[in-house]
Amino acid sequence: MPTRTAPTPKRLVRKAAPPKAASRKSAAKKAATKPATRPPAKASAADAASLRKLVSRLSKLEVAGLAGRLVQGWRKDLEVIVAANRRSYAGLQEVVRRQTAQIMEAVSELQTVGKVMATVGPKDSVRNLDELALASLKLALNDVRELADLAASSQREAFELMQQRVSENIEEVQRLLRK
Question: Does residue 120 lie in a domain region?
Answer without folding.
Answer: yes
